[in-house]
Every structure is written in structure tokens, then in C-alpha cells.
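Session log. Operator J.P. requested a structure for one protein chain; no other inputs attached. Running the standard single-chain path with C-alpha cell output.
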Amino acid sequence: EIENETVARVLDDETVLSFHVGSPMKVPNLYKVKTRIFSTVDFIKRQLASGEMQRATFLDVGGSSTLFYDLMEIETNRGYIANVLEEHLEDAREKGWGWIKMEDDRIELEDDRFDYCLCFQCLEHSHDPLLLLRELLRVSRKGVFLSIPWRNQTGTVKKQPGAGPDVQHIFEFSPGDLERLVSHAGGKLVRQEPLSTEAKLFSLNPGRALYRKRAGYGSPNVLLAHIKRLSHD
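Structure written below.
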């Protein structure tokens, strides 16, 4: 339960529906996405040392808006957005944020350019998730924060006709396989946390809960992770 004017303003329905709900079931998924966004910010705050949020620099890789920076109260001189899609950089430019146009999974920046990288609900869209993880770790001095869909088993998603990687998932990872992939990228897992975004919906609508459970939508359904380079303390 969030009683905060800043959160209420930033998490307005129009912003969330426009940039953060990719499903055609936009309105039914609105609460779930808001829960994921707020819980992700809370996870980051709990992982950072006191005062770190107020002085660190951040790169949001795959960011479609500056919503996370708004919630984290990051000033424009400390936050950049990186994306392969030009339309997702327009909002950042208009608001005075730094921006970086990516080509595929490469981030054309020098090593250790930022303190932290953020990459939320993007790894599963990557053609080369190992390369993307290496790039995230390379350009961040202190660590990377990830969120991906929770899956019990790693798998490759069937191609949807006409759908590009910005729309559909390609690879989905279990917690154990994510940890193994991070190790191949030269990183180490600091912490993983499962997150359920459907608990309240289930309590409000038991019939829908049963239907979604039988369809394979369980709890948890999001995995939050904090990783660092092996060479970093």
C-alpha cells in the first residue's frame, strides 16, 4: 500500500500503460506491472549502502522511459538511458537525460563508465544474453541490477510470426541457469529474490487465480538479481 505523492505521480496509469505494459491485456496487467516496478526500486535501495543512491551514476539499458529514475530520485546528470529503439530515447532527450543508441546487444562505452547498470525485463529479449551480460558488467564499476521473468526451467520461446525481439521473448532462464550464465560472463551473483505480482489479484478473484494456475502462471513470476564483476569487491 503506497501513500506517497511522488510515487502516485510517477506511477500514473498513462505512463505505465504507454511504456511498461507490453501485453495486449494492458489494463488487467496494470496492477502487476506497478507492483513489479515499485518492488524493483525497493530491491535496489536495500542492496545499496546508505547514501549510495544519492551519489551514484546509473545506466538503464533497455529503458523505455525515465520512470525508474523518477522513483529513485536520480538527477538528470546521474542517469542515462540506452536502447536500440529510437522512439524510446525521445522521452529521455526531451527531459534532459543522457542517452545512448545501442546496436544489438553492444554498449559502445568505455569500461567502468557508470557505477551501476539497470536492465529490467530485457535479458529475455536479447539474441545474445551472454554478450549483453558481459557488456553490462564491463561498463558498470559497482554492479548490475536485473529483473527477468521467473521460470522453473530454462527454455527458448517459440517464434511469433512477425514479432521482433522488442516484442517477444527469446531465451528465458531459471534462477540456477541465470547464475551459471552470469559466471560465464565473468560475474558473480550477489543476491536473487523471487517476486510475486499476482498475489493480490488472486485474493480478489479466486476463479481467475485457478484459471491462471492451470495455465502455468504461478507464483513467483519475476526474479530480481544483483550481480557484480568477479574482479570487483
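Operator note: Strands lie at 58-61, 79-83, 98-101, 114-120, 140-149, 155-156, 171-172, 187-195, 222-229.
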